[in-house]
Automatic annotation (TrEMBL):
It comes from the Bacteria. This is Restriction endonuclease. Residues 187-354 form the Novel STAND NTPase domain. One of its GO terms (biological process) is DNA restriction-modification system.
Amino acid sequence: MDIGIRADGMTTSDFENFAIEIVKKKFKNNSLHGFKEGKDDGIDGIDDIASPSLVIQAKRWQVTKNHTTAVKLLKEEIDKIALTKEKYGWEADFNYVIITSMGLSPAGLKEIRDYADKIIPNAIPNDDYIIFSSTLTTLSQQKAYRDIFMNYGLLEKDITNVLRNARLKSIEAESRDYFSDFDAHYFVETRFLGEAYHILQREHILLIQGPAGIGKTTTCSMLGNLFLNNNENIFDIIVRKVEDINEVLTLYNGNYRDNEDRNLFVIFDDFLGRNKFDVGERVLQDIRKLYSASTNTNNLFICLNSRTQILQDARIVNFEFQKLIDENFIENRNFIIDLSRYSEIDRAYIFRKTFEKKLHSLGDIDKLELVGKYNNLIGKGLYSIGITFLDQ
């Protein structure tokens, strides 16, 4: 691609701003700045008006510009900056960068260098300080400069990046939607939440087990909410079925693996089946792949949950799954949080919050009925059963 032709279509001010960004990057000088349009004494960019170390002259010309005339005009700019040096009282030497949209021949480049050495000695110490169309083309192909060229419309955005950004926006929307009806006010924080959070931070994978209605799904949601609101990192939270593991890994590999700025947090709710063990051999193999991916990457986090009985059934029925759980989740490291170990006080608090959440959503007549059921269950101390009953 001929960047010279593309730059030819820019406005003068856009080209000057573009030139400043290129020179900032190339010479590692973030102090460079430009000025408003108007008489500029030959200064399109500078790092210190009182005592500069770097001065920029930017020239955007039509591609049809006569090259001999262009070289002549650049020499006139060198004359101008020499006068500006005297006018502004610059005593220290400075470097002078010329950046132009035109191409230059070897003879033209040498003519400019020789003239600069005579008028402002040492200001252009080597060819790096004269940036023209072929130099811009080379820079545009370097990763460090691509964003600058894209921001000024000199490079088309890579279609792969466009598609990736579209997918990430979709995932962001899914994350927001997932928490649209999540109310942390009704969540009871216990020591298990802290344990689960630290396991996920350390190991990147967690299995939550417990009886029906104990809060496995809610705990996964709260963990996702904690990671989502982590101010140090960007997290996307999604919920998937185990049958979608390959889709999840494809999503991760294509959009997150090489993207250190983003993290993917995936919840697999009732991953072995909702009411009974209900996954095939292939899915169990996929779970092994999922485990391997999460423990060998820096920005993939997996939260699995299952009823304790279904987890036990799966280990009995399938030896390979038993081996996976025993070797990877229990023997090597403890990746399992068992919510059946809630204390009686924890259960009572959870029961109370479940009751309050349900009560908040009901009309007056239904509220009276619910209060009666609640008091009856409290009298019998049936907290776990009550949680399931009230949450229906």
